[in-house]
Every structure is written in C-alpha cells, then in structure tokens.
Amino acid sequence: MRITTYRSNCWAYVSLTKRLFTTALLAGSVLLTTAAISRADTVAPAAPTLADAWLETLPQLTEPVSWSHAYALLAAHQERFQQERRYLVEELNTLIISAQAAGNTLYRQTIAAWRDTLRSLEGQPLRSPERLDLLKLGTNLREAPLLDRVIHWGACEIPTWVEVWGLQGVTRTAWQPGMTLDTLAHGLNARAFTSIDYVHLVTPQAEVIRRGIAAWNHEDTPLAPGSRIAIELPTRQGLMGALPFPGTTHELDIINQRLPGVLAAQLPGDQCTQWQAQ
Predict the structure, then answer these.
(1) Residue 248: per-residue pLDDT
(2) Structure letter (DSSP) for residue 159
(3) CA geometry: angle at 52 spanning 46 and 54, to 5°?
(4) CA–CA separation, 181 vs 108, rounded Å?
(5) Which of 28, 47, 211, 234 is deepest in the core (most CB within 10 A)?
(6) What average pLDDT does this structure show over 59-88?
(7) Per-residue pLDDT at 246
(8) Is 258 exposed, middle or buried (0-12, 13-18, 19+ CB in 10 A)?
(9) Residue-wise burial string across 139-152, b where 16 or more C-beta atoms lie within 10 A, e elsewhere
C-alpha cells in the first residue's frame, strides 16, 4: 500500500511539475512575442532619401523629365559655391586693375565682362556639381543622400544655347544638332579663342572636361545643349604675348582652376521646375 501510494504521489508530482513547466514556457513565449511586437512598433521608419523624393515628384509632372538636365543641391554645397563665386569676383578685380595698368583695354573689357556676369549670379539657385538624378541614384540606392541633407532638386527644359566664356566676354549662341567646339568656334567672334590652347567644357551633368583647341593639341569635342565653355587663360607660357598682366600669374591660375567649378554649380537651363526639401 505504501509503495502504491508513493508511486501515485510521485506520478501526481511529476504531472504537476510538467503542467507548471508547460505553463511557464507558454508564459515566457507570450512575453517574448509581446516584447518583439513592442520592439517592432518602436522601430523608426527609414529616413527618406532624394531617390524617394524624386519618385514622389514624378506623378506631379505633366511632361517627361530630361534626366540629362536634372539636378539637386546638397546643403553642404550651398554656401561653398556662393563663396567661391564671390572670391573669383575679387580675383577678377585684381586682373582688371593689372590690365588697366598695362594699357590692355581689350583684356580689361574681357575680364570685366566675366566679373559682371559672376556678380549677376548672386542669389541664383545652385546645383551640386554631380549627378543626383533618379537614373543615377537608381543604380545604387545606398548612395542616395538623405533628404534632410538636400536643399532642393529639380529639372530644366533642354535649353537652346551653349554658353561661352571667352575673350569676347560671356555670350550664348544657338545650339545646333551635331555642334562641336570647332563649329562653335567658327560661328563666334573671331577673337573669342585667339591664342588659347585649352578650354574647360562643363556638361549639363556638371562634369568638367579639359579639351585642347589649338592646332597642336586639337581634340574633337561634341557639345550638348546647355554646355558651358570657359577658356583657360594663358599663364606662364605665352603670358607676355597674350595677357600682359604684370605679376598676376597667381590670379590667373586661380581663375583657371576655380571658374569651371563655379560654372558647374549653375543650373543646366533657364526654364526649370524645382522642389524645396528644407
């Protein structure tokens, strides 16, 4: 009897233990599931990027976007290129004084035209000098900048001009299909590229390309509408024959190095649709 009772009590104990253990497991599972749901509820949604903004923008448009003339401005670049432009204005002022002292009226007028054009850009919208259109960002979404780092984004209608910063000053001429640097030069004022060996081509995508235009270094260069072309002013070699500015080779170097970047920060057209991010 004792043995039987003992066995019965043992089985009862084991059964109770199993029930308690199962109850504990179930309670623990519920707690874990509840915690997981709670954590999921508190996870912040992914921060929007410029690619997301482009996708939200597209349904608002009535015409297809010309991605070759799309742009965006990152907050890190906004003040930088305004300062670069103002700095170049001061360097051009130095060259104007030097040309005046040298009695070179022609080049004084050229540099003054450059300076005045740069001054007129004060307050105009800028772009970051890189491709930030949806086609580019779509190839690697991880490189899309967060929207809180963007000032604005937009796209321009394809312009009908190319812009030339040459010895004639700053002019725009009508773009033609198949236009190259050669055909552009033939249609410009005869002195626009006189004694110039190199130019910097700024494409609508803000790429800066140095190209030879003299007989000894000539390179075939097609031009897209909205391109900007800036001559490279002669510095040490040929300076006395072309730009007799005594003691100003340093300023010329600065202009050659920085002007293309400032032009690359300009919008790739005149008729543009733009959205503000901040």
Answers:
(1) 59
(2) P
(3) 165
(4) 25
(5) 234
(6) 94
(7) 55
(8) middle
(9) eeeeebbebeebbb
